[in-house]
Amino acid sequence: xxxxxxxxxxxxxxxxxxxxxxxxxxxxxxxxxxxxxxxxxxxxxxxxxxxxxxxxxxxxxxxxxxxxxxxxxxxxxxxxxxxxxxxxxxxxxxxxxxxxxxxxxxxxxxxxxxxxxxxxxxxxxxxxxxxxxxxxxxxxxxx
Length: 143
Ligand code: ATP
Ligand code: MN
Known about the structure:
- By secondary structure, this protein is of the alpha/beta class.
- It has one domain: HUPs (Rossmann fold).
- Helix content is 48%, strand content 22%.
- The protein has five helices and five strands, in the order βαβααβαβαβ.
- It has helices spanning 13-24, 41-47, 51-79, 92-103, 125-133; strands at residues 4-8, 32-40, 82-90, 107-111, 138-141.
- A five-stranded parallel β-sheet has the order 3-2-1-4-5, sandwiched between helices.
- α4 (92-103) runs parallel beside α5 (125-133).
- The longest helix has 29 residues, at 51-79.
- The two termini are 25 Å apart.
- Adenosine-5'-triphosphate binds next to α1, β2, β4 and α5.
- Residues 10, 114-116, 124, 126 line the site of manganese (II) ion.
């Protein structure tokens, strides 16, 4: 049923926890996982006004993300999934929804919270927006 998963990660504890659940879905028939990290374009803009330095920062962040996603790819491939890794620069929730349109996953997996992980929040803003607007079912792993 959930043959293709879109897994969005910000490398937070909760989104890393979601990985264990994805691995369990191999035996339930999931074949493919698209792993997505979005470098927040608003953060890049805030960080640096200088266009050239901003470009350097973006390259750096992509390189970091790629490196951090390598063990994730290996871990998933080990279990027998076909894995692709995507790193994009955009507004995270918008980009997750755009990639959903492109990849047409049968399930989106994400954490209830991410890097901010505010105690009083029921859901982070990214998971709330994706949950609200996605077409695919969403599996939200709680912290
Ligand atoms: P907020 O960002 O609203 O301050 P938060 O950081 O606690 O709150 P979210 O950002 O909504 O919570 O994170 C929830 C889940 O969304 C994460 O566990 C992850 O699966 C996904 N996510 C968040 N940011 C990104 C990102 N930049 N790229 C890919 N997935 C992300
Ligand atoms: Mn966040």
